[in-house]
Write a structure and sequence with these properties.
The chain is mainly α and about 190 residues long. It has four helices and no strands.
Amino acid sequence: MDEGLVALAGAAVGAAGTAAGAGLAFWSAIKQARIQARAEHAQWRRQVRRDAYLAFHALIEDVYNKNWDILEDMSLQGALAPAHVPTPLHDARRVASEEMEPIRRARGVVQVEGPRSMYRLAHQLDMLAHIILDEVAILRSKESPEREAIGQTDARLRALSAGAERFLDAAAKVLADPEPTSPIPRVRR
């Protein structure tokens, strides 16, 4: 009977060891799956942010490029370019509003994807683009826009371009961060 008990005890110890090993392997696999899921989510999030930041930047660049040409034509009026034909202010502001619509939508995506620092930069560029578009609309509505007003709008346009570059630099830093940050929390008003 001693041999039977020893064999039974050995089998019990072997079964317990096997169960413990299987349990450790199971929990290790779960932990590894969670690590993998977090890494995949971080990569997905980084790609979504990248797309959002590039889309916003492209819209800001469009404002810069389109309005640079308009200001250049106005500043050359009478010298090298044909005479400026004024546009009614209402029509010029409607065009500006249509240009702002995609910028506002893109800024919303930047806000959702975060981090807060990127949203603040996007908000500043959005506001500056809005001011520029309104100033250009006013200039376009005048028979002979003042050179001083053109110069002020030109300075803002240059600031917009510099801000767009800072936005790209900040985006590169955010995207280079191996740990994704959480989106901007909604503030209750």
